Amino acid sequence: MNLFIIGTGLIGGSIALDLKSKREDVVVFGIDTDDNHLNMALQLGVIDHKSTLSQIKSADFVILAVPVDASLVLLSNVLDQIGDDALVIDVGSTKFPICEAVAQHPKRHQFLATHPIAGTEFSGPSAATVGLFEGKTNILCEIEKTTFKLQEKALALFAELGMRIRYMEPKSHDKHIAYVSHLSHISSFMLGKTVIEKEKDERDIFDMAGSGFESTVRLAKSSPQMWTPIFKQNKKHVLKSLEEYIANLSQFRDLLEKDDYDSLFGEMQDTNRIKEILKGMK
Fold first, then answer.
1. CA-to-CA distance for 186 and 220, rounded, in angstroms?
2. What is the pLDDT of residues 157-197, one digit of tens each?
3. 3-class DSSP state for residue 165?
4. What does the alpha-carbon distance between residue 170 and residue 194 come to, in Å, rounded to a whole number?
5. Ramachandran region of residue 91, left (φ > 0), alpha (ψ -120 to 50) or beta?
6. Looking at the whole model, is its pTM more than 0.70?
7. Residue ranges of the alpha helices (H) in the chain?
């Protein structure tokens, strides 16, 4: 099986490593605008060969794992060049823009829009790891627009990776992911910014930072090159989630100013049920 990975970072690289560990017939070709990434991916065994778009005709699967703005530019070109039996899978964090971009493409039936909920705060080929997708959810959008034979091949591939499958419309995906992923990243980035700015005046503030702070700002280590296009593409839903988040922060501040600690306790107690919700997701 010829697997082409466009973007040899965390997600694309982890798919490559996983499949190479499970199938002897997998040959992985890497395409990346960053030569350092390509060389590193080759050195680490993430890919077997460096490649270019001009060679993609021989692909059985193409994994499009680049920032979402680059995906919009690349996807039509990739579909133009693949063979008749190949499947192109994108793994970006926004789904409506990319589905809309190729809605009328003559090879739309050879494309599947997915979002594996399996990222970390790290990026680049060195972040790729075997087993990243085991037990993780993969959201598939508009699968009915992919030809049935290729649907079957994709589902078999996802099963090999150990993924759980959910189906969702692109607009619904983008709305919900704004709350559970995009807002989380904004919160982490801005908490990190707040503490960094305070650290300018109080040099020992990071000496007091414990595991709670570290886990809360973990996502602030994520790539701005990846996340800026995500926020741009999902601006409408991100702004809505931010408005609601800011309103809750303002309410918490107001209760504190009024010394209304019973209400503060109630707010936190009501939110404690997130433990049961998250437990049920595992």
1. 8
2. 999 999 999 999 999 999 999 999 999 999 999 998 988 88
3. strand
4. 34
5. alpha
6. yes
7. 10-22, 35-44, 68-81, 96-101, 148-160, 170-177, 183-199, 211-216, 224-233, 235-257, 261-271, 274-281
